[in-house]
Design a protein that fits this description.
Blueprint (H helix, E strand, L loop, with lengths): L1 E5 L4 H10 L4 E6 L5 E2 L5 H11 L2 E6 L14 H22 L3 E10 L12 H20 L5 E5 L5 H7 L9 H13 L5 E3 L4
Parallel strand pairs: 1-2, 1-4, 2-3, 4-5, 5-6, 6-7
Helix pairs in contact: 1-6, 2-3, 3-4
Length: 198
């Protein structure tokens, strides 16, 4: 299969690429560096990416920025960033990607466990993650040509916790998280929210 991975240079995206590269033809895209550059917050950039790369069998979106700070400190710009980038960016990847994915292909979006287990400082992140999970389930009901739509909703990734100097308790290694994306790309399920914790 030809699989587009958006966010391919990030911690999760690179692990997904490593998990799929031996069996599939990968097209790697990211905001700053990769063979293909894309800014999911810019609809024209997303459309341009699809026009450049052409037909694929699957899309994995493993990207999306959102503001993490106390509710009292969240400004309009923080909500706008979270909604425009992580939420609408991925919604547009799916909407614009429909025409470029082969029949019975798949699109996988990324939310996060803060949708179900919020924490102080997570109001904006929890908002967009919960919206993405609901959107993915609903979109699967209307996907054309047998396309499958799923959402992966990971907890903290161990490698990210290491970079932040935080305790590793509750973290899941990126390679383990990547297996949920493999399941979404190669399996038969649709309308699912995958929790990749072991």
């Amino acid at each position: 299969m030809r699989v587009l991975i958006i966010g391919a240079t990030g911690t999760i995206g690179s692990a997904v690429a490593a998990a799929l590269e031996d069996r599939h033809d990968l097209v790697l895209a990211s905001l700053q560096r990769a063979p293909e550059r894309v800014d999911i917050a810019d609809p024209a950039s997303v459309r341009g990416l699809f026009a450049r790369i052409g037909r694929v069998d699957a899309i994995v979106s493993a990207t999306g920025r959102a503001a993490f700070k106390p509710l009292a400190d969240l400004a309009d710009a923080d909500f706008e960033l979270s909604l425009r980038h992580k939420l609408m960016g991925q919604v547009n990847v799916l909407r614009f990607g429909f025409d470029w994915v082969a029949d019975r292909g798949s699109i996988t979006l990324t939310a996060g466990f803060l949708s179900r287990f919020p924490a102080p400082g997570s109001a904006a992140v929890s908002l967009v993650n919960a919206a993405l999970e609901g959107f993915g389930r609903a979109a699967a009901l209307e996907a054309p040509r047998g396309l499958r739509i799923n959402v992966v909703s990971p907890t903290w990734v161990t490698e990210t916790l290491q970079k932040l100097g935080r305790p590793l308790t509750g973290g899941t290694p990126a390679a383990t998280v990547a297996q949920a994306y493999v399941r979404s790309v190669e399996g038969a399920e649709t309308g699912q929210v995958f929790d990749p914790r072991p």
